Amino acid sequence: METRQQERGQGHIRTGLLDPEPVTEVDEEMVSDVDLNNTMTDEEREEILSELTKLEEEISTLRQVLASKEKHHSELKAKLGITPLSEFKQNFNKSWYDMQTSTAYKKTSETLSMAGQKTTAAFTALGTAISRKFGDMRNSPSFKSFEEKVECTVSNIKTKVGSQGGGGSFEEVLSSAAHASAQETPSNNMSESSDHERTY
């Protein structure tokens, strides 16, 4: 008896200890799969078909009423001057306003504003640094020497063009001035300027 109860819990019923094959119990799912249409009478079937026909007629009537109401709706909008484009604009403006008042938009806007301010500050600092470097470079001795050579060359060109009275071409004057300034060295210029200072 104990063996029979133990095996019943495992889904089998054994009639004896020596039976080789277990007898399986009937599943509850199989009972629910029974076709209930076989139990329907012809009278019930006709009643269901009649109800189905009535529902289809009501659906058709409701569709006609809905189409009539939609037509009346569009006529009223046309009388008020509401066009699909104006409706679209109104919906767009409302959506835009809703988006701008959302917290996500506000946070994104603030973040972009801060990033813009930081970028502006960085470019300002960069511009200041570049200006300072150019100022330092312009005050350097090598730049001043270069500047003096350019000034000397320009004055030589002016002198030669004015003294020759138009006798030579501009290229000849320019090359002779460049040749003359190339022969002058900064030490010669410094000794000449110190001689001029002593005489004054």
From TrEMBL:
GO terms for biological process: positive regulation of apoptotic signaling pathway. Pfam families: TPD52. The keyword Coiled coil applies. Keywords: Coiled coil. The keyword Cytoplasm does not apply. Residues 182-192 have a biased composition (Polar residues). Residues 38-72 form a coiled coil. One of its GO terms (cellular component) is cytoplasm. Residues 1-20, 160-200 are annotated as: Disordered. Residues 1-10 have a biased composition (Basic and acidic residues). Belongs to the TPD52 family. PANTHER family: TUMOR PROTEIN D52, TUMOR PROTEIN D53. This is Tumor protein D53 homolog isoform X7. It comes from Salmo salar. The lineage of its organism: Eukaryota, Metazoa, Chordata, Craniata, Vertebrata.
